[in-house]
């Protein structure tokens, strides 16, 4: 059945008949901003085209993976070659070793990794590993951080400190989240109180070090330093969910940003996804050999996957990591991303619109607020109506931003200075509108 002549609206109607909400991942439905999702037909470099052949400058990049832009020649070539060799074997390949070696080389402190197919799977497996390795059950997560949709992680804060969380999804029994404690991001006092009460029972603390699921919020240095100290002191493992930040904010991930400011800093377990697959389903978790020995087939913590370490996905990931490891890549990407947020801020200022901005490497955030929020409630208190108007004004002008105020944005190496200038020009109009 051809879809050539259908509009976005018609495709959305058709999709909703056979796919719940018309989408295979909720944020794509535009529910937060209203309107019709764009159905994408193709992408190249920094651009995507929708079913009506309208072109957009893409600041989502498949929610992070497309750090080189769409259709990078080296990536396409690697994938095309891999496809001709075989789609999946269910047996080990040399490419899996190469990808594991690359991650181990690029991230100090990681000695071994296990490859999986999604960030959800990697985060869920990292928690099981932390529990298996420590023999403890409880975990801390932070409100506003998303770690995929495993049951134990779909939790919001309870009514007060040191109460365990409530499920944020139907279908998650309260007993399943009874070991998940949810704290406010960047709140040292709460962290200390939680450790004082539950420290000996805590298997791990999982955190997005630079949160990208409540727009863009950094864990403050003193908070991260204290978190590391408390984990070490109480024997809880510090798990960095770098599904979004890994190989995106810096070649060594967000942990390299914290290590640069906090001497000797490293998390205990790291979780990766998105960029390591370069746009194919691939994710990983890794840590020291000693902790990884707990995993099957060596240890008692079970974890497996039919398509784990898939030969086409590993080819795509390896080609992507090879490109981003080239000298100067991150300096150029960070400068381009900074030029975008600085330009947005200047355009907002000229229109007398309060806008707070931040970026690290190729990831950015902007808030309709006077100051950068430090935690989830502050993010949700920023001006939603204004964000939604801005989003649609930009979309009309051919700029595709994340369709919700609680999502971060991404710049790729394919975004040129002209693309950034065009985006800022569109923003100038959108702020004035
Ligand atoms: C920080 C973080 N962790 C985990 C996940 C889940 O990854 P996936 O969607 O590949 O399951 C995401 C997805 O956006 C994420 O941003």
Sequence-ordered SSE layout with sheet pairings:
Elements: H1 8-18, E1 40-44, E2 47-50, E3 55-58, H2 73-85, H3 94-106, E4 112-116, H4 119-134, E5 138-142, E6 155-156, E7 166-167, E8 180-183, H5 188-198, E9 202-207, E10 210-211, E11 217-218, H6 221-234, E12 237-242, H7 253-261, E13 269-272, E14 283-287, H8 289-292, H9 311-324, H10 329-350, E15 356-360, E16 363-367, H11 376-380, H12 384-396, E17 399-400, E18 409-410, H13 417-432
Parallel strand pairs: 3-17, 5-8, 5-9, 9-12, 12-13
Antiparallel strand pairs: 1-2, 2-3, 4-14, 6-7, 10-11, 13-14, 15-16, 16-18
This protein binds pyridoxal-5'-phosphate (PLP).
Helical content band: 25-40%
Shape: globular
* Count of alpha and pi helical runs: 13
| Radius of gyration of CA atoms, rounded to a whole number | 21 Å
Low-pLDDT runs: none
* Bound ligands, each once: pyridoxal-5'-phosphate
Strand content is 15-25%
The total beta strand count reads: 18
Report the mean per-residue pLDDT as an integer. Answer: 96
Largest sheet: 7 strands, mixed
Strand arrangement within the widest β-sheet reads 4-14-13-12-9-5-8
Distance, first to last CA: 41 Å
Key structural traits:
globular; alpha/beta; four-stranded mixed β-sheet; 37% helix; 433 residues; 13 helices
